[in-house]
Design a protein that fits this description.
There is one protein chain. The chain is mainly beta. It has helices at about 1-35, 215-220; strands spanning about 40-55, 85-95, 100-120, 125-130, 135-140, 150-170, 180-200, 205-210, 225-265, 270-300, 315-340, 345-360, 370-385. A 10-stranded antiparallel β-barrel has the order 1-2-3-6-7-9-10-11-12-13. A two-stranded antiparallel sheet has the order 4-5.
Length: about 375
């Protein structure tokens, strides 16, 4: 009788354990299904405060002459725009039940930099002086007809466009847990910049005085001791540069992106650490069109008072260049950031950088390949659809 009771107790325990295990398994399966019930389509919109690093030869012609040492050099004002606010967008599609995804993304930005810098001296009026014994009597003869100055005017415009088409596969855990994905595809990049620079200067304005000659004194004894205005000599130098440069290229790309959760869950709110790196090789064409000229006018100090301001000689030099070259441009980049996700909504912020080597022809008279840097903080919002 006791054996029968023990068997019944054993069967009850086994039934209880089986029921509990089944409930736990169903709960785990339901939770896993909820985690894997990902949206099929993600729409991402965002922006980036981009620091632009575009190398370009400065415009420093030997003729006209250099500016007066008291003024800042023109090269301090000739740099291309440094900042851009980029717009970004991306569509990602993952077929239901698949570990593959397909995406298309675009980043576009443009910027303008204008400079109107004028530096000059303010010379005092030019005097003639009558000396009578120990008394010096100044009287105004006329105001200065020129002054030392240096001016720089520049209008520079830049734009850039980066387009990606990729197919990716989830390859499992990342560096710190979470997910990791490798994408392969095509990248298209286009960079353009235009600049118009105008320089002008008067580096050597001066006044020359002279005294009455003995012959003049013999005729007009009162002219003794008089300091006469003898003239004002100076140069006016002018230089201009117009340039148009661009690069367009396309090529294969490879990227790796990981995401590691560290706080919360997707249903109630989750924080993840995101990271990634990308490489590409772009095959394209760089072009440059430059035109610059210089002119110098000489105003001698010996000209007659009634002709002051006129020039008696000038020199002009002008040159034009148009270049085009096929180039291979290596591209490397990386990103790191943080994402907050709650169900099918994400908001992300981080820092991203891309460098394109030998992309732009930055020379004025000769080809000179320059690197393009494009980096800065970004922020995005994403919406998931389907599932």
């Amino acid at each position: 009788m006791s054996e029968l009771i023990d068997n019944k107790k054993t069967q009850s325990r086994l039934q209880f354990l089986a029921t509990a295990s089944a409930i736990a398994l169903l709960g785990y399966t339901a939770g896993a299904a909820a985690q894997n019930d990902e949206p099929q389509l993600w729409i991402e919109l965002g922006g980036q405060l981009t620091r632009l690093d575009v190398g370009q030869e400065t415009f420093s012609p030997a003729f006209p002459q250099t500016r007066p040492a008291m003024f800042a050099p023109s090269t301090d004002y000739e740099e291309l725009p440094h900042q851009s606010v980029d717009e970004t967008g991306k569509l990602s599609f993952r077929p239901k039940g698949s570990s593959w995804s397909f995406s298309g993304g675009v980043r576009y930005g443009r910027s303008v930099r204008k400079v109107d810098a004028n530096q000059q001296t303010f010379p005092k009026p030019v005097y003639a002086t009558v000396v009578s014994g120990t008394l010096e009597i100044p009287f105004l003869y006329h105001g200065p007809i020129a002054h030392k100055f240096a001016s720089t005017q520049m209008d520079a415009r830049e734009s850039h466009l980066i387009v990606d088409f990729q197919a990716g596969k989830d390859v499992g855990l990342g560096l710190f847990g979470g997910s990791s994905q490798i994408d392969i595809g095509l990248r298209f990049a286009q960079f353009e910049n235009k600049s118009n620079i105008a320089l002008a200067s008067n580096p050597d304005w001066h006044v020359r005085y002279k005294y009455a000659t003995p012959f003049l004194i013999s005729i007009f004894p009162a002219a003794a001791g008089v300091k006469f205005w003898g003239g004002e000599g100076y140069h006016n130098h002018y230089a201009t540069l117009q340039s148009e440069r661009d690069f367009r290229g396309i090529g294969p790309s490879l990227s790796w992106n990981g995401s590691s959760p560290f706080v919360g869950n997707r249903e109630d709110g989750e924080l993840t650490f995101d990271y990634g790196a990308n490489v590409a090789v772009l095959f394209g064409r760089q072009r440059a069109k430059t035109s610059h000229q210089t002119r110098s006018n000489y105003h001698p100090e010996t000209m007659h008072y009634g002709q002051r301001g006129q020039h008696v000689s000038s020199k002009t030099f002008a040159t034009h260049h148009t270049r085009s070259s096929n180039v291979v441009v290596p591209n490397v980049g990386a990103m790191a950031g943080v994402t907050y996700r709650i169900q099918n909504f994400k908001i992300s912020a981080g820092y991203r950088a891309d460098f394109f080597f030998n992309a732009m022809d930055g020379g004025n008279d000769e080809r000179r390949s320059e690197k393009i840097g494009n980096y800065g903080p970004f922020a995005t919002i994403s919406f998931g659809l389907g599932g």
